[in-house]
Amino acid sequence: MHNKALVAQGGGPTAVINQSVIGVVLECRKFPQIERIYGALHGVRGIVDEDFLDLTQETTQNLELVAETPSSALGSTRDKPDRAYCREIFETLKAHEIGYFFYVGGNDSSDTVRIVAEEAEAAGYPLRSIHIPKTVDNDIVENDHTPGYPSAARFVAQAFMGINLDNKALPGVYIAVVMGRNAGFLTAASALGKKFPDDGPHLIYLPERNFDPDAFVAAVEATYERHGRCIVAVSEGIHDASGQPIIGQLGKALATDAHGNLELSGTGALADRLADLVKDRLGIKRVRADTFGYMQRSFVGCFSDVDQREAREVGEKAVKYALWGDTDGSVTIQRVGNYQVDYDLVPLVKVAAKTRTMPDHFIDEAGTGVTDQFHMYLRPLLGSGMPNEFRLQTSNRVAKIRKRG
Amino acid sequence: MHNKALVAQGGGPTAVINQSVIGVVLECRKFPQIERIYGALHGVRGIVDEDFLDLTQETTQNLELVAETPSSALGSTRDKPDRAYCREIFETLKAHEIGYFFYVGGNDSSDTVRIVAEEAEAAGYPLRSIHIPKTVDNDIVENDHTPGYPSAARFVAQAFMGINLDNKALPGVYIAVVMGRNAGFLTAASALGKKFPDDGPHLIYLPERNFDPDAFVAAVEATYERHGRCIVAVSEGIHDASGQPIIGQLGKALATDAHGNLELSGTGALADRLADLVKDRLGIKRVRADTFGYMQRSFVGCFSDVDQREAREVGEKAVKYALWGDTDGSVTIQRVGNYQVDYDLVPLVKVAAKTRTMPDHFIDEAGTGVTDQFHMYLRPLLGSGMPNEFRLQTSNRVAKIRKRG
User: How many degrees, rounded to 5, is the angle at CA A20 between CA A17 and CA A26?
Assistant: First the structure.
């Protein structure tokens, strides 16, 4: 009785989210109390629909290959369950004699785990419910960082490293919009691609600061005058002083998702509007804008090995906490050395539905760049084998002959 | 006298363009006839301005590191020289006693080399002028493929591999716009990320075929009904039956570049317009659009090792042709085995200002996909270590309990 475990994935996929699921599955196999480990397809939606795979029948070899594959192998959902939905989840868990519930997800997912745990307790049903963190936004409280963020941050850093080289060869203004509704961690990662003092991004705009179009144009102009070019990293969630998203100020009705949030990703509108602003106000001819889009969280072949390892470990630890501990909770990552981490289980209420943003000491005084402390924070997370940039030596100039004067 | 060589880079950067420059520099050092090897900054612009670096003073170690760095280390230009401009180029070459001129670039660059060579010949000046091919578009005639394309193609294939995994986890319609004004080679590379029969991209739109919005909407609808999702790869250069670019049909004036071409890259407008079309006509809720933008040609850390090797070799061969042969020309790549290439020098007039597009046998009958022949053509170019996708086994379904009926 109650000798089955269930694992599911919720919210936006990451490059390493399967590591956590596989960590759960492989660790469950080591406990004789667990007879079967099920995976629900498409998160909580698959639980209420009873769409389960029996992961106990998977070979270790295939599980290890799936672990290295980005995005949610079990599928995901944007459903945000209310109390009645969570009751349905619980009824299904009960019907299948699930004694251990593991949910890999972000803030919303941890809230779901909290409510399901409450339902089980109210019903006197023996269920251990553990939330396993993931998000490319790095916005879960109580954590040094969140699995999924380091790999996405590495993608952003490598992308800007290349953008900088491209923009140096063909100078102009370049603007790229990076994911991040409330937290600027991912956009800030763009700074980690810099090596030389004149490397871009030269300006970084984060949702932790108010965005002022006039100040933005002035800053681009000053950078362009200084370097003959300007690279800007912009968080999709930038907003004005009243909290209104800049992307919402386009004169065009924008779609909202099931959570009532404005859709920020999947459109190039913000980048194009900022580019138009620069063109119109400054008259600079070569202005280009990109929106990094879904590649940031799904690109195959750009991982942080540190992230892969930790995503595996939070899955493994979740099972240990569930089987050896006697409490529900959310697995968290704590930094204990430079660089090493340890894990902890915190009560679900401490994490559920809360949002972490970038602390002030990671943002520079002008509000358009990051501090050395942020570099120190992020660099070890990016893992080994980061690419590097090399330049020809500019000291070896040849004397002019035709234009001597 | 005339014992100096000059190398420069023109047009859009690629991930491996520095390999060609370094190939030239290192090979020049092996010929006692060449005393100095100069690099012009920002292409032909740097030649008329006499902005030269003496690359003879570089260490081999640094040259090798620069070779692995994407984008044009010498800088590039979009200048398209006319006869008078080319005369200025020639006068500068003469003033500096340049006997060997190597220009790494695309179609426009090869035309510049042709005119400069003509000027030298008319003046009776001993100059060997060699064009070294590069372009992510793969649109240079007389070549099996062009250096720069394989690495960009690999980026596009890996990007779509990830996009497909993301879209499978959170189903909907996803549209991505890929670079390619006249040639669809880069957009077609999106198909190389497919592994399972239901993997995306499900539809591929190339500039080699006319784009019909109604047929596009119908194809998206049919795919969505079949798979519950639909991924579309679109070339930025798609046009209607009259040849008018679809991006130009936005009701908004678009900028043109120095060559009089509409600016297609650096804006998300086309992707957003196509997404709106799908939303409006089909009423599908989750429709997302990305524009891959400049990452395609500059992303650091996504290379084809085959491309790196060949880009180096065309530079090396260019020097051998210049020193041992007695003709000007353009270096070309010929496929001699599956997979091995050899190189050839063809007259500049055969390549200059011409554009190659995808042959019919690479495009399927519906015009929205590629053939096996294209897969056979492209796969070896992507090089070693391509990532792979693995799925959980869907055969291990758990029987439903609550919803038995």
Answer: 140
Write out chain B residues lying below 8 Å of A285, CB-based.
255
Contact between B250 and B269 under an 8 Å Cβ cutoff? The reply is: yes
From the number of C-beta atoms within 10 Å of its C-beta (0-12, 13-18, 19+), residue A38 rates as: buried
pLDDT greater than 90 at residue A381: yes
Contact residues, chain B, for A391 at CB < 8 Å: 66, 69, 73
**Known catalytic residue at B137:** yes
CATH of B150-301+359-382, one of 3.30.390.30, 3.30.565.10, 3.40.50.460, 3.40.50.2300: 3.40.50.460
Burial of residue A404 (number of CB atoms within 10 Å: 0-12, 13-18, 19+): exposed
Query: What is the DSSP secondary structure assignment for residue B159, as one 8-state letter?
Result: H
Q: What is the pTM of this model?
A: 0.96
pLDDT digits (tens, 9 = 90+) for B344-378: 999 999 998 899 999 999 999 999 999 999 999 99
Interchain contact, A299 vs B162, CB within 8 Å: yes
d(CA A392, CA A398): 14
Q: What number does CATH give the domain B4-147+303-351?
A: 3.40.50.450
Per the DSSP assignment, residues forming a β-bridge with B204 are B233
Question: CA of A336, closest CA in chain B: separation in Å?
Answer: 30
Cβ proximity of A175 and A232 under 8 Å: yes
Domain definitions of chain A by residue range = 4-147+303-351, 149-301+359-382
CA distance linking residue A154 with residue A200, whole number of Å: 16
- Going by C-alpha positions, the residue among B141, B291, B216, B254 that lies closest to residue A287 is B254
CATH fold, domain A149-301+359-382, is Rossmann fold (3.40.50)
ipTM for the assembly: 0.95
CB B41 within 8 A of CB B93: no
Could you tell me where the DSSP H helices lie in A301-380? 305-324, 348-351, 372-378
Q: Catalytic: which of A137, A139, A199, A328?
A: A137
Residues in A 110-149 with any Cβ partner in B closer than 8 A? none
Nearest-CB residue to A300 (from B66, B74, B387): B387
Is the distance from CB of A173 to CB of A287 less than 8 angstroms? yes
The partner residues of A239 in beta bridges, in order of sequence, read: A245
Q: What is the pLDDT of residue A251?
A: 43
Q: Measured at the alpha carbon of residue B30, what is the angle toward residues B27 and B33, in degrees to the nearest 5?
A: 110
Q: Does B253 touch chain A (CB under 8 A)?
A: no
> Is the confidence at residue A260, as pLDDT, over 70?
no
Which entry of B79, B108, B111, B137 is annotated as an active-site residue? B137
Contact B132, B332 (CB under 8 A): no
Question: How far is Cα B150 from Cα B334, in angstroms, rounded to an integer?
Answer: 15
DSSP strand pairing (B230-235 vs B52-54): unpaired
Phi, psi of B244 (to 5 degrees): -75, 130
Closest alpha carbon to B348 in B108, B182, B79: B108
- Asked whether the domain spanning B150-301+359-382 has the same topology as the one spanning B4-147+303-351, the reply is yes
Mutate to test the interface with A, among B390, B397, B403 (most CBs of A within 10 A): B390
Substitution target in A109, A276, A299 with the highest count of B β-carbons within 10 Å is A299
Name the residue among A354, A350, A341 with its Cα closest to residue A314: A341
Nearest-Cα residue of chain B relative to residue A302: B301
Tell me, what's the pLDDT at B151? 98
Q: Does A340 touch chain B (CB under 8 A)?
A: no
CA distance B360 to chain A (A): 30
Residue range A144-196, pLDDT digits in tens: 999 999 999 999 999 999 999 999 999 999 999 999 989 999 999 999 999 99
Instruction: Note whether A53 contacts B: Cβ–Cβ < 8 A.
Output: yes
